[in-house]
Design a protein that fits this description.
seven-stranded parallel β-sheet, Rossmann fold, six-stranded parallel β-sheet, alpha/beta, single chain, 2 domains, about 15% strand, 14 helices
Length: about 400
């Protein structure tokens, strides 16, 4: 098959959507498919890949410090690029300008369009008032989805949302996956782990909590720190490391100072994906209070490094965290702090949870992800355009397995 992926973010940017798309592209090519990418061009980046077409971006950023924004799309060039590569199917990973470019191109070329929803945009109302008004956003979202052959939901949470907002279209769950060999480049020795601890000024006796992701209000990082402060105050050997950056970093810094735990709150800024596994590997527990996730790659990454998790109860986590097995799902921020304390103070249980995390991570392999996507593409091609309702079948895709 000849497949086009449309995204509103691309290298040298770093996030879970890019990681997922890059893995999907590479593994599909290994299986004999031809895959092209259409995305945004970051200032200063030089693209030398003939199978990638990048358009200039209008930088809105939203405090991410990565340069997010809509692309200035040239629709004629989009069509030419797809025709040059004899594209048979487009897979859209964005609801914005490049998403509409994908939609228009699919209609013009009379080929199917697959759409993955990666983000719960209704949780991002702090960035624009339009997202706070559900009627406006959902009308926009329905307009965008019109004509898609199938919606890909990375989690049960995303599936339920799409069935609520776009009930006319079939939805299939394809969980995110990680290529373990690429992510965890090598097994770290005791000396390697000691070097990482030294680099980030952790003592050998420190117990480390880790959050990886955007430091934005939608991730509830302020609430996370607030839930942990009582334990940090009575346990000076416990540290929380925030890996990433964003508009809430200053507020977190101020909150840590006010609570007299600033030395225990560490900010790394952006860390290259090929290096972040080292930070997971020196940590004891992944923590998050976010309720805006779809299917976070970070929890899979942590589990690959045998890292248990404590998170707020949310459908985006239900297959990643098995309550009482490899972590805890909690109903309040206060309970989050309580469960963190319980695990850190019980070395035996923490070790049991760590072992379980590594086993559960195998379910979310890149191999499983790509196998399900490849099968979905094949079924879309088979049923397009007159039998798309068959794409709603619960038995359409291979079952997840370890």
């Amino acid at each position: 098959m000849n497949i086009a992926l449309f995204l509103d973010c691309w290298t040298p940017m770093k996030n879970g959507v890019i990681t997922s798309a890059q893995q999907l592209r590479e593994d599909l090519e290994k299986r004999g498919h031809h895959v092209i990418v259409l995305s945004i061009l970051q200032k200063g980046y030089v693209n030398t890949d003939p199978n990638v077409l990048l358009f200039p971006v209008i930088n809105f950023d939203f405090g991410s410090k990565q340069g997010f924004g809509p692309a200035k799309v040239h629709q004629k060039r989009v069509l030419e690029f797809l025709q040059e590569h004899k594209i048979e199917l487009v897979h859209c990973h964005t609801e914005f300008s490049l998403g509409f470019a994908a939609k228009r191109a699919a209609i013009k070329l009379k080929i199917p369009r697959v759409t993955t929803t990666h983000t719960m945009w209704e949780m991002y109302g702090n960035y624009t008032p339009l997202l706070k008004v559900k009627a406006i956003w959902r009308t926009y979202f329905r307009t965008f989805m019109r004509g898609t052959s199938v919606i890909v939901a990375p989690s049960v949470k995303a599936k339920r949302y799409n069935q609520l907002v776009n009930p006319k279209y079939p939805v299939q769950v394809v969980p995110n996956g990680i290529d373990t060999a690429k992510f965890r480049l090598k097994n770290l020795s005791a000396a390697d782990l000691a070097e990482v601890r030294t680099r980030y000024r952790f003592d050998s006796a420190d117990r480390i909590l880790i959050f990886v992701g955007r430091l934005g209000p939608e991730k509830r990082v302020k609430e996370l720190l607030g839930a942990l402060i009582p334990y940090l105050q009575r346990s000076p050997q416990t540290k929380i490391v925030f890996v990433g950056d964003g508009p809430a970093r200053t507020e977190l810094t101020d909150k840590a100072k006010q609570a007299n735990v600033a030395p225990q709150v560490v900010f790394t800024g952006f860390v290259d994906w090929s290096e972040v596994y080292k930070l997971y590997s020196i940590s004891n527990l992944f923590v998050t209070a976010s309720l805006s996730e779809v299917h976070p790659m970070t929890l899979i990454e942590g589990a690959i490094c045998n890292l248990p998790s404590v998170a707020r109860r949310d459908d985006s986590f239900v297959d990643l965290i098995r309550d009482g097995v490899n972590g805890y799902l909690v109903d309040t921020d206060e309970e989050l702090g309580t469960r963190v304390a319980e695990l850190l103070d019980d070395k035996t249980k923490l070790a049991q949870f760590a072992k379980a995390a590594g086993a559960i991570a195998k379910t979310f392999s890149a191999e499983n992800h790509v196998s399900r996507m490849e099968r979905l593409y094949q079924k879309v091609m088979q049923y397009y355009p007159d039998r798309l309702e068959l794409l709603a079948s619960e038995d359409l895709l291979p079952k997840l397995g370890v």
